[in-house]
Specification:
Layout: H1 3-28, H2 31-35, H3 40-52, H4 64-81, H5 88-119, H6 124-135, H7 139-149, H8 153-180, H9 187-197, H10 201-211, H11 213-228, H12 230-252, H13 269-282, H14 288-310, H15 315-321, H16 324-351
Transmembrane segments: 12-28, 35-52, 96-120, 126-145, 157-177, 224-244, 265-287, 327-348
Subcellular location: Cell membrane
Family: Belongs to the UPF0324 family.
Length: 352
């Protein structure tokens, strides 16, 4: 196949995903979907899955490279540009309690989720992605981990589905508990609790707005600190995977024959780029209008990545994953609600 023909076929696949992504943006702005605070990313993966289970076999196979390009390359660019949502000044506003609480929540959720997944005898990739999505920032974290672990697309879709279900549930439960006074938290504590335990950024925004401006402002900043923690988590994941592979190769006696470099740590360059963008954004060099445009463009890139991942996911693969991923997500959901409340009620005040 000529290079020009290959690029043309790839372009067809990219344009197809872009069309679905435009539809996702339109659907996300409808009244019902907005009331659920579902982002275009979530709508995109649903549209992609609808395509995978209906029209996929009727379109040219030569379009597949363009779909894969969106799920791999555009994904990494989208993660990097996501850094424009954050600044280091945001961290200073909420101080040490938020950093400590977020660190505990992320660490326990990710490591605990992987351990529970092992006890449930789940697929390791799905368990890891579900734990990272629940512990950090929902779909965006799942995408970041997927780009590091490089699992099959359907595993990513399963993990994202668990995040959507329990994150949406929490978005309605938290305001109800706060208004009833059951939690016994003041607005600052409730903001810390919400930001450190809800799954998606959109879920935090939706729940925060339902509880008032004071809660919302704190919750969003605390949530963004969790997003920053995606970088060290990805580095730890990369290091751990490299060590595991090295041990396996040593057992097989391959390391000596290949020069011993099979266990080399692969640093996810997009995670480093993400941190670099946060540092640049903290300098305040770009006008607000430019930042707003970049952020909106980034949402579109991430929506394209999610749509492409959905396009590689069939219902049969969901059946193959079974009920265990949702059971794991439910266990993590209970931990986030109970453990997060204890941290916000007792640990955070002690650190102030």
């Amino acid at each position: 196949m000529k290079l020009s023909e290959h690029r043309g076929n790839m372009l067809h696949g990219v344009l197809l995903i872009a069309l679905f992504s435009c539809a996702a943006f339109w659907i996300a702005e409808t009244g019902f979907v907005r009331s659920l605070s579902l982002s275009p990313l979530i709508v995109g993966i649903v549209l992609g899955m609808l395509y995978a289970n209906s029209l996929r076999n009727r379109l040219p196979a030569t379009w597949v490279p363009g779909i894969l390009f969106c799920s791999k390359r555009l994904l990494r660019v989208g993660i990097i540009l996501y850094g424009f949502n954050l600044t280091f000044q945001d961290i200073v506003k909420v101080g040490l309690p938020a950093i400590v609480v977020d660190a505990v929540v992320v660490t326990v959720t990710v490591y605990g989720g992987v351990l529970v997944g092992r006890l449930l005898r789940m697929d390791k990739g799905i368990a890891l992605l579900t734990s990272v999505g629940s512990g950090i920032c929902g779909a965006a974290a799942v995408l970041g981990a997927e780009a590091t672990v490089r699992t099959k697309p359907y595993k990513t879709a399963v993990a994202v589905s668990t995040v959507v279900i329990f994150g949406t549930l929490a978005m309605f439960v938290y305001p109800a508990l706060y208004r009833s006074g059951v939690l016994g938290l003041d607005p600052a504590q409730m903001g810390l609790y919400t930001g450190s335990t809800l799954h998606e950024v959109a879920h935090v925004v939706g729940a925060g707005n339902a509880m008032g401006q004071e809660v919302s402002d704190t919750a969003i900043i605390v949530k963004m600190i969790r997003v920053i923690l995606l970088v060290p988590v990805l580095l730890v994941i990369s290091f751990t995977i490299s060590r595991v592979r090295a041990r396996k190769l040593q057992k097989r006696g391959i390391a000596a024959a290949t020069g011993g470099d099979q266990g080399k740590i692969s640093i996810p360059w997009f995670a480093v780029g993400f941190l670099g963008v946060i540092a640049f954004n903290s300098l305040g060099l770009l006008p607000d209008s430019v930042i707003a445009f970049i952020k909106q463009s980034d949402v579109f890139l991430l929506t394209m990545a999610m749509t492409a991942l959905g396009a590689e996911t069939s219902i049969e693969k969901f059946r193959k994953a079974g009920f265990k991923p949702f059971l794991l997500a439910a266990i993590l959901f209970v931990w986030l609600m109970a453990g997060g409340w204890l941290l916000a009620s007792y640990v955070a005040p002690w650190l102030m």
